[in-house]
Specification:
The protein is an all-alpha fold and 153 residues long. The chain has one domain. 79% of the residues lie in helices and 0% in strands. It is built from six helices and no strands.
Length: 153
């Protein structure tokens, strides 16, 4: 019985490690053409400003209005995922596995942000916001790629 519990626990830990590594790997890949700025300006998204603001904040400094930044990211996220899901209805296969994984990762980072922001750990909250912004940027780029492919067809 004990061995089974240890094996299950180790399997879960390895799965969580794989999931985090895969999400970070997806976010680190760059496409041939970047559509994020075009999609952001066309849809009045605020994540590019949030990304630049988070990059200029020093490692130990706290951002006073992290809650407002998180709400802006949440609005951008909802808009982009809605657009992607709507666009997926007109294509075969729908959302990709990577997009679904990043949606789960966004929700996990949202929980991490909420916990670390309440516990007054600004560095963890800033890192969670930065990853959330990267996910939103990834979705904006995916939306731009879909629009470019549809325009060519």
């Amino acid at each position: 019985m004990f061995v089974s519990i240890v094996i299950i626990a180790l399997s879960m830990l390895l799965f969580l490690y794989w999931f985090r590594y895969t999400c970070l790997l997806i976010l680190s890949t760059k496409t041939a053409k970047d559509y994020t700025t075009k999609v952001a300006s066309a849809n009045q998204l605020e994540f590019p400003g949030i990304v630049s603001r988070l990059k200029t904040v020093a490692e130990g400094d706290a951002v006073a209005d992290m809650g407002a930044l998180q709400q802006s990211l949440e609005r951008d996220y909802r808009l982009l995922t809605g657009l992607l899901q709507h666009a997926a209805q007109f294509q075969m296969g729908g959302l990709t596995l990577e997009q679904r994984m990043l949606m789960i990762d966004y929700q996990v980072m949202k929980l991490v942000f909420g916990a670390s922001h309440r516990m007054v750990q600004p560095e963890h909250a800033r890192k969670a916001l930065a990853e959330m912004a990267d996910i939103v940027a990834h979705f904006a780029n995916a939306m731009g790629e879909r629009s470019a492919v549809a325009a060519k067809a």
